[in-house]
Structure formats: C-alpha cells, structure tokens
Amino acid sequence: MRIGMDEIVNAVCLNLAERHEVPPTSVEVELLYDEEQGFSAEVWVQGRSRILIEANLKEAIMRYMLTQYNERVYPSQITLDVEDEIWADIESA
Hints:
three-stranded antiparallel sheet; Uncharacterised_YxcD; DUF2653 family protein
C-alpha cells in the first residue's frame, strides 16, 4: 500500500493534535527531505515550532494506519521515499 504526501501530513496532524489536545486544524506541517539528514517535518502547534525526525513520522503513520485503515503496521514495514513529492510505501504483514 502507498500513502501520499497529503495522507502523511494528515497522519502527523492527527497524531500531534491528539498528543497536545488541540484540534487537528490548529497543526501545520511541512514535510522535508535532505540527502544528509533524511526525512523530517517542521510542525507548528499553537504557534510553537518543532522538528520531527523520520522515527516520529513513522510513528504518526503507524497510528494513522490503525485508526483510518484498521491495520496494525510496524516501523520496519514503512519505507519513506521521495521523487517529486514524499510518499510512504507500507508492506503487508
């Protein structure tokens, strides 16, 4: 299964909204890729900026897959990739 950039952004928004007890619409996300640093995201919650690393993105995707698709996935099943945009390939168990 493949989820695109929009779904990854939704996953991060939902995950952080739940953690900070704010509405998902109050979370802003910008996905980033750097050849040296790998995948990350800059997020803003209630006006505060923070950087998420690849492990945080995978955690958000795992929770998203469970809540939206009723599928339990593990970090080892998630591969982030980029060409024109960032996406995640998720292996079946």
